């Protein structure tokens, strides 16, 4: 892929901004909920920036309102699912169940170290969930939105 073809929002370090809410969810046990919500704000800012980028590119290439709207919808739905909604939920559940397991089954760990272990498990799981979630959302989009919009 040439430098000109590289997607700034999906193929560079900027993609990690979409995972800000997963980091926030990982730290939920240790930080005020306002910080977790702020991490969602950063992730949604990334989603909107990528959506705007895709919309502008199709507008410059094609200019037809229908195609711009379809591309905008595609980018917004894909990014919301793949970067915010599904990963945030998954990390939240991983951290919740890790914390519960440690509290109920490993009773010799005090609360503060238990919270840090929960954070570590959440952070460590991020690289393992992203690929499968991105792939699954792409398949879902291909079977639903993208198919419906072609007809």
Question: Which helices and strands, and how do they pair?
Answer:
Layout: H1 20-26, H2 33-61, H3 65-105, H4 111-143, H5 145-150
Helix pairs in contact: 1-2, 1-3, 1-4, 2-3, 3-4
Written description of the protein model:
The protein is mostly helical and 151 residues long. The longest helix is centred in the middle third of the chain and has 41 residues, at 65-105. The protein has one domain. Helix content is 77%, strand content 0%. It has helices spanning 20-26, 33-61, 65-105, 111-143, 145-150. The protein is elongated.
If you compute it from the alpha carbons, what radius of gyration comes out, rounded to the nearest whole angstrom?
18 Å
Tell me, what's the shape?
A: elongated
Largest β-sheet summary: none
- Segments where pLDDT lies below 50 for 5+ residues? none
Mean model confidence by pLDDT: 91
Secondary-structure-derived class: mainly alpha
- Beta-strand share of residues: under 5%
Q: What portion of residues is helical?
A: over 70%
How many β-strand stretches?
0
Q: Which sequence of SSEs, written as H and E, runs from N to C?
A: HHHHH
Number of helices: 5
Distance between the termini: 31 Å
Number of domains: 1
